[in-house]
Amino acid sequence: MDNSSPDVTIVVIGYKHAAFIEQCLESIAAQTVQARCIVIDDASGDATEQVAEAWFAEHPEAQAERIYHEENRGLVGTLNEALRKIETPYFAYIAADDWMEPRRVELQLQAALQAGPECALIYSDVFRADAAGRRFEESYAQIHREQWLAAEDPDAYSRLLVGNWIPAPSVMLRTEAVRAVGGYDEDIFFEDHDMYLRLAQQFGVTWLAQPLATHRELDDSYGHRMFFTAEGQRDFQKAQVSLLIKHADADQARSAGIQEKLRVRISQLYWEGESPAWIHSNARLLIRALPKPDLKLRLISMASGLGISGRSIRTLTAPGRTRREV
Fold first, then answer.
1. By CB neighbour count within 10 A (0-12 exposed, 13-18 middle, 19+ buried), where does 226 fall?
2. How many CB atoms are located within 10 Å of the residue 14 CB?
């Protein structure tokens, strides 16, 4: 990790990754094209910082800016912090429990330079591994075959409106393009899909078929909690509404059925008891984007604007309630 490299910065973000960060740092040091490096531990509370410092002490030739938070700021806020510090044309973010193939920086930088400044996002396939680092048989592209085929479509933006197939550990980004679209949205916890959409709307996307990183799939990871628990699923639904609302008035959104998906999701969240203020704000934004009025959505917007929750209406109208109970 040579700070003199002018082209790429690798951003390593750790959170409770004491058991894994050494392998991540080793993979960065082994790159055939060296990159600048920023290592940030987001107040892990475990030995992540100590393991990282011990590794750097044993590898004095490896230079990196190290930042250790005293309070947890969250992944997206930490990414924006790193973005403010990056001085190279390109950067890649990797979680400290993942690791990279030796030619990752070389091949992606080559692809980026070949694609030119109109390209803002370069990605590849990734290997998958368990907590012990044992790789699974199928790569990310193989387990997402149908979505991965979308990568062949030159209109990445329209495809990303339907769903995200791009594996975050493989992504290299053009720094000025990320800044041009406003950096990472700290109100959306799955920052990658949101960023890819905003970049693809304005810039080009290119990809390499070979796996250039390995993603470690952990049962107690942040991503697992967000996508595979009931509470996380609810937060995911809300975040996806916030993400897609940004694009609801685009022509591609209509052709991809995004407006209908938003109508269904906002209605579902309303009847499940989401706060009226949140429902009202997002329903109004969607109504403005719709080509024609939607009566049910307008009624939900009106009721939530008056502070009436969907759950309270369901309670009052539940079968079997007597007038006295009401």
1. middle
2. 25
Which residues make beta-bridge pairs with 128? 215
Query: Rounded CA gap, 315 and 312, in Å?
Result: 5
Q: Three-state SS for 301?
A: helix
Beta strands in the chain (DSSP E): 8-14, 36-41, 65-68, 90-95, 99-100, 119-129, 172-174, 204-216
Phi, psi of 210 (to 5 degrees): -80, 145
Q: The pTM is what?
A: 0.88
pLDDT tens-digit series, residues 210-248: 999 999 998 765 555 555 566 677 888 898 899 999 898
pLDDT at 287 over 80: yes
How many CA atoms, within 13 angstroms, populate the side-chain half-sphere of residue 224? Answer: 8
pLDDT in tens, 288-307: 988 887 899 999 999 999 99
What residue segments make up the domains of the chain, in order of their start? 8-218, 229-316
Burial-class residue 281 by CB neighbours within 10 Å (0-12, 13-18, 19+).
Answer: middle
Average pLDDT over residues 187-192: 86
Domain 8-218: give its CATH architecture: Alpha-Beta Complex (3.90)
- 3 state SS of 175: helix
Nearest Cα neighbor of 127 from 154, 102, 163, 100 is 100
CA-CA distance, 155 to 158, in Å (whole number)?
6
Non-local (6+) Cβ contacts of 26 within 8 A are 55, 99
d(CA 298, CA 301): 5
